[in-house]
Structures are given as structure tokens and as C-alpha cells.
Specification:
Layout lengths: L10 H9 L6 H28 L11 E4 L25 E2 L1 H5 L15 E3 L10 H17 L2 H9 L8 H15 L7 H26 L2 H11 L5 H10 L1 H4 L6 H19 L10 E5 L13 E2 L15 E2 L7 E5 L11 H37 L5 H8 L11 H5 L10 H37 L3 H18 L5 H19 L16 H31 L3 H10 L4 H18 L1
Antiparallel strand pairs: 1-2, 1-3, 4-7, 5-6
Helix pairs in contact: 1-2, 2-4, 2-6, 4-7, 6-7, 9-11, 9-12, 12-15, 12-16, 12-17, 15-16, 15-18, 15-19, 17-18, 18-19
């Protein structure tokens, strides 16, 4: 029965009956077996409707597969790409099939909803393994894709064979009927064997549809050019067009999206991509910042806790970046929705947001360099090298050594200089960007292409793509919250430095009395940047010792090729020990 109220219902009844099979009373056991056999007949009708016809005939929500309930305000269909459907099946909301589009719905009428279904674990019979439930879900989703109207339309004017034939459907029906007609209790292993056979047939059809007919390689190239910033020309223009926009807090939600759309179109024009087939299906939006305390970015106080002037207003704060939640939306072909699900697009967006933040910081530091060059040329270019050498003078060797010299040096004893700080920041940011683009993204994409060439069914392609995304998230440190928080702090310091570049003195040792406040700001940024980069180097060195990957070794070698950070960490530790002794 399916009524409301509490108690067990639907597939949960199967679990209760299965537990009573071992009661020990023969008469009662035979009665339970018969009841369970009749209930299994209902289950087989559900399985046949889902796995053979791609239809979910579940009026009362009693099956272990259900349609996901779209989040409030989410656009209908899959046109906008991007996510909103929760990835965790335990936290997803469900709606019954009749609420979605009626019990007698034909799969071809909604060809974009193949990823809109999820398992409902509470309804899964206790003797059904989870792997079997996932296989049943996959077969039904694949059948919905193969039975869509668009495939039928393609059949009319091409020799497309990527669809289920009547013979396949008949074979599926006969296999399920034969299993249902067996005497005794349902053999779950036999059912799994039948589902495996159906999965092989469906996966072979999907391979022809997704990989060959729908140009999977072209879709992966489009994802690389957009989410992974493979089209560097466009994203350089985009960062330049949004520089003024992102230098101030974002406006209210609709206006922020309109401003991003306008900047996006300007960047397309500047890069000559206004008619590009890929970027026609791409758009940007600004997501609201997460509200939870755990995910709220921490504000970083620039400078150490002790020393300095007593004024509380002198300590600057690096505020969290409100533009770090820019999301890229890409329309995906209806036949590729089984591979590019909302969960997968969400993972792509995590990589994109990290790359965009890195690209913005890199662009801002280059702008600082250009401003300095313009300023030097406006002064006639005379003594530019001498002026830069004067900025980098070691204050400990100057006439007024002592306390003033100590105040003009960083944690590692380096002179606090605007030029030197910009160089150190650009060195770290450029090496991280090179590591991501060359050692991670390019290498992993080449491995993905090799695996796709070697695979011969849809499951192989899906597993290869999932491993590709998992490797990207891992090697980009997106699954390591301490490392990501350190990157956020470093990015914030670079943004603060770039925003105040024109007001900062050339060198703390040669700053005038009027520049004392700006000199203190420069020293705090310098010291905090040294601390954060040393912390990052220590954490990455610890990660390398646990997972010895050549990609991470390459990054650490580039950052510390002359033992700069190794010696800097040693100097900072010696300084800390000396201060503790004093």
C-alpha cells in the first residue's frame, strides 16, 4: 500500500518480508515466500518499465529511484549548464514522476532530463547491494537517452544505429520475465547478471551515440577551452575587461550578472570570438557567497600580532574576495548529459574559479609592473636601474642600522622593497600558473584522450572522464582545505598590494616621514606574504612526502630551485628561536 502516514511502504515492505523468511516455522515461511513472490512481481514491473522503456511509473514514491526536485529558481531544462542539483543523493529532494510530467510520459518528450534521477537509499531493499541499484539507475537513464525523439529524428536522415532495437527490448523483457517466473525466492545474483547483460548492450549503443555521433572529443575540447581556460587569448581579455568591475564590491544580483554579461561580450569582441561556436553557448553569473561559518573565508590580518604602533586602525585587513564565486555556464548537447551531469559541471566550475582567481592576480601584478615602467619613462628614463637598485638596498648595511634596519627587513631578513615584493609575488603566482597549465591540465588531458581511444563502451569513457576530473581536483589542491586557504590568503595579499601599489613607498629604509603609514603597510604586506608562502611551501612539501607525484615535485623544484624557501624557512625559525630566548 502506498498511503501517507508513517510505517513501511513500497520497497521497504520487501526488506521486512525478507527478514521473516528465516522464522523457522515451515507453514509461515511458505506463506511469507508467496507474499514476497507477489511483491517481487510488482518490483519486476517497475524494473521493466524503467530499464526497458525508460519510464518511472511511481505514483506514490515507492520505488528506489526517484526524480530529483530542482532547486528553487533553477531554470528548467539543461540549457544553462551549471548546477544547483545537489550532488549528494542523501541530501537531494525528490518528486514523483507523475508530479514531474504525468504517469504516461514518453521519454522523448523530455530529452534533457537524463541526469535528473537519483537513488533513494531509504527505499532500497536491504538484500539489494548498492552496486546493483547504481546499475539499474544507469540502464534506465541510458534507455531514456537512446529513446529520445532527437535520436529518432537523426535516424530519418542518417544511418544512425545508436538506439535500442525492438529485438533488444524483447530480449530485455524475456530475461526479466524468465527471472520473475522462477520458483522460490528471488535470486539477487541472477538479477544482477541480467542487469549486467542489459548494461553491456546499452553501453555499446551509448558509445556509438555519445563518443562517435555526438563528438565527445569536441565536447571535451570545448570544456578545456572554457572551464580550464585553454583559450588564453579570450581569458586575458576577459580579465582585462572585468578589472575595473572586480575592483569594487559587486552590486545586487541581477545587476552583477548583467555587468558580467556585458564584460563577457566585450572580451569576445576583443578576442575576435563573437561568432565562435563554443562561446555562443557559454555565459557567466555571480553566485552568492556561502553563508555557513565553516565555508566563510577568514579575514587575514596583515602583519604580526606584536610590535608596531599602538593604534588599532593601523592593522589592515585582507577582505574575502566577493568575486571568487563567478560561475561559468555551458550548454551541453542533450546526448552528452549522461556524461556532463550537473555534478560534473560543478567540479569543472571549482577548477575554473581557482584558475580565474589566479589569472586575475597574475594580471594585477603585471599591471603594477607596467605602471612602474610608465612612471620611469615619464621621468625621462634616466637612472631607472639605479632607482631600482636603491629600492633593493640592504638596510642593515646602511648608516642607520639597528632598530630602523630591523623595521625595514622582512621575516627572512630581505629588504622591504616594493619592486622586490612585486617580483616575489609574480614569481610564486607565475610558477603556480605554469604548474597548473603544463604539469596538471595538459598532462591529464593527454591521458584522458589516450584512455578514450582505448575504451570501447560508454562505461569506459565515463570512468576515464571521472578519473580525469578527480585527478584535476586533487592535483589542483582543491580537496585540501588548508592549502586552499593559504592560496586565498596569498591572493588577497597580492590584490591588496596591487590596489595600493601607487601609494606604497619604493623602500621602507628610504621612506620619508610623510610616507611612514604607507611604509608600515608595505612592511606588513611583505612580512605576511613571506609567512604565507613559507607556510605554503611547508604544506606542499608535506603533501609530496605522502603522495609522491612528479607533478608536485616539479612545482616545488621551480619554487625552490636555488633553495630560496628552504633557507628562508630556516632563517625564520632561527629568528623565532632567538626571540623566544630573549
Amino acid at each position: 500500500g502506498g498511503g501517507g502516514g508513517g510505517g513501511v511502504r513500497g520497497c521497504q515492505i520487501l526488506s521486512v518480508l525478507h527478514e521473516q523468511l528465516s522464522c523457522g516455522v515451515p507453514v509461515l515461511q511458505r506463506a511469507v515466500e508467496e507474499i514476497l513472490r507477489q511483491c517481487h512481481a510488482v518490483l519486476f514491473r517497475q524494473l521493466a518499465a524503467w530499464m526497458v522503456h525508460g519510464m518511472l511509473l511511481d505514483e506514490r514514491g515507492e520505488f528506489f529511484i526517484a526524480r530529483r526536485l530542482p532547486p528553487p529558481g533553477a531554470p528548467k531544462g539543461a540549457g544553462g549548464g551549471g548546477g544547483g542539483v545537489p550532488a549528494d543523493p542523501h541530501s537531494v529532494s525528490f518528486m514523483h514522476e507523475d508530479e514531474a510530467y504525468g504517469v504516461a510520459e514518453v521519454p522523448g518528450d523530455r530529452q534533457h532530463d537524463t541526469d535528473a534521477f537519483a537513488l533513494r537509499p531509504a527505499m532500497l531493499p536491504s538484500y539489494f547491494p548498492m552496486r546493483l541499484a547504481h546499475k539499474v539507475l544507469f540502464v534506465g537513464q541510458a534507455v531514456r537517452t537512446l529513446k529520445s525523439q532527437r535520436v529518432r529524428l537523426l535516424q530519418r536522415d542518417s544511418a544512425l544505429k545508436a538506439t535500442l532495437s525492438r529485438a533488444d527490448e524483447l530480449a530485455f523483457h524475456e530475461a526479466l520475465d524468465a527471472l520473475r517466473s522462477r520458483p522460490g525466492v528471488l535470486n539477487v545474483l541472477a538479477l544482477e547478471s541480467v542487469v549486467d547483460d542489459m548494461q553491456k548492450v546499452v553501453a555499446a549503443h551509448l558509445w556509438r551515440l555519445v563518443v562517435r555521433e555526438s563528438d565527445l572529443s569536441g565536447a571535451l575540447v570545448a570544456a578545456r577551452d572554457t572551464f580550464l581556460m585553454g583559450n588564453g587569448t579570450f581569458f586575458n581579455e576577459l580579465v582585462a575587461c572585468t578589472q575595473l568591475l572586480t575592483s569594487v564590491p559587486p552590486p545586487q544580483q541581477p545587476t552583477a550578472d548583467y555587468d558580467l554579461a556585458a564584460a563577457f561580450q566585450r572580451a569576445l569582441l576583443q578576442a575576435g570570438l563573437e561568432d565562435d561556436a563554443v562561446f555562443k553557448h557559454v555565459s557567466l553569473s555571480l553566485l552568492p557567497a556561502p553563508r555557513t561559518d565553516e565555508s566563510q573565508p577568514q579575514q587575514v590580518r596583515v602583519g604580526g600580532g606584536g610590535g608596531g604602533s599602538g593604534g588599532s586602525g593601523d592593522g589592515k585587513l585582507v577582505a574575502p574576495d566577493p568575486w571568487q564565486h563567478v560561475k561559468l555556464h555551458m550548454s551541453v548537447s542533450w546526448s552528452l548529459r549522461l556524461l556532463f551531469t550537473d555534478e560534473v559541471l560543478g567540479k569543472y566550475n571549482r577548477v575554473f574559479q581557482f584558475l580565474l582567481a589566479l589569472k586575475r592576480v597574475q594580471f594585477a601584478l603585471k599591471e603594477c609592473w607596467m605602471k612602474q615602467q610608465v612612471a620611469e619613462r615619464s621621468r625621462g628614463g634616466v637612472g631607472a636601474g639605479a632607482a631600482r637598485a636603491a629600492e633593493n638596498v640592504d638596510p642593515s648595511r646602511s648608516a642607520g642600522a639597528g632598530a630602523a634596519a630591523a623595521a625595514a627587513t622582512g621575516v627572512s631578513g630581505l629588504p622591504v622593497s616594493r619592486w622586490l615584493l612585486r617580483h616575489l609575488m609574480a614569481f610564486v603566482i607565475d610558477n603556480v600558473m605554469y604548474y597548473l597549465q603544463v604539469d596538471v591540465l595538459a598532462v591529464q588531458y593527454a591521458l584522458l584522450c589516450e584512455k578514450l581511444d582505448a575504451s570501447r563502451d560508454f562505461e569506459g569513457a565515463q570512468v576515464a572522464h571521472d578519473e580525469y576530473l578527480s585527478s584535476l581536483l586533487s592535483q589542483c589542491f582543491l580537496n585540501m582545505r588548508p592549502v586552499m586557504r593559504c592560496f586565498e590568503d596569498i591572493f588577497g595579499l597580492c590584490r591588496l598590494f596591487a590596489a595600493q601599489f601607487g601609494r606604497l613607498p619604493a623602500n621602507c629604509a628610504t621612506a620619508s616621514a610623510a610616507q611612514q603609514r604607507s611604509s608600515e603597510t608595505l612592511r606588513k604586506i611583505f612580512c605576511e606574504f613571506e609567512r604565507q608562502t613559507n607556510l605554503l611551501f611547508r604544506m606542499l612539501s608535506g603533501v609530496r612526502s605522502h603522495q609522491s607525484g612528479p607533478h608536485l615535485s616539479q612545482l616545488l623544484l621551480r619554487m625552490d630551485f636555488n633553495h630560496f624557501y628552504t633557507r628562508g624557512i630556516g632563517r625564520s625559525r632561527q629568528g623565532a628561536d632567538a626571540s623566544n630566548v630573549n
